Amino acid sequence: MNTFEKVANLEGYSYVAGIDEAGRGPLAGPVVAAAVIFPPNYKNPAINDSKKLSCRKREILYNIIYIDAIAIGVGVIDSEIIDKVNILQATFIAMREAVRDLSFYPDYLLIDGLHRLQVEIPQKPLVKGDALSVSIAGASIIAKVARDRIMEMYHRQYPHYNFQRNKGYGTKEHCRAIEEFGICKIHRKSFTVKNKPMPQLSLDLFKINERKN
Question: In the CATH scheme, what is the code of domain 3-153?
Fold first, then answer.
């Protein structure tokens, strides 16, 4: 899991940052990206693609990564910007913000996916990078846990949608809540439910939610 980091180190790069995101697919909430720089030759066989880990395991590893990493950066882009620029561009913005948030500026990037970032740093995109690179896998865990915590916060503001459980994804329960209550402030209006545009927020529910905020 650290082969790509080792290659970059051998090429003279000292601070290799793995970058990944969480939250491209949900109907509500932000997209969150993380950047993680581990020490050279860092190994932790427990660190893996966040999607393959239980919630409890992610929380444990989240704390371990914060202890072991040289630097961690996080970028959060909300639903309003997602609707303005589209989810792919919002993801790129979140990734760039995560890089800027690092306390040590990286000299090389390993990025999960197909695309390069528009930053003046040498970089390598890796398809399924969260299964190939410990730095990207670490970033996937940080991004996932950070986003889950944000959605749990939103659950307290908008309990009708049960964000604590579905994290904004289009589960049957979440879709039924949208059909019943309409959408709230953190729903992505540019997304669709069952191939139909998002229902508009009912005025009564909007007033209820505003009083709770």
Answer: 3.30.420.10
**Closest CA relative to residue 155, chosen from 166, 141, 144:** 166
Token representation of residue 129: 């990078």
> Which helix (DSSP H) or strand (DSSP E) does residue 55 occupy?
helix 55-68
Classify 27 as helix, strand or coil. coil
- What residues does each domain of the chain span? 3-153, 156-208
For residue 91, the one-letter residue type is T
Question: Which tokens is 77 given?
Answer: 């882009």
Query: pTM, whole model, 2 decimals?
Result: 0.93
Tokens 């729903």 correspond to 187
Would the pLDDT of 201 be above 60? no
Amino acid sitting at position 191: F
- Whether residue 96 contacts residue 63, with contact meaning beta carbons closer than 8 Å, is answered with no
DSSP 52: G
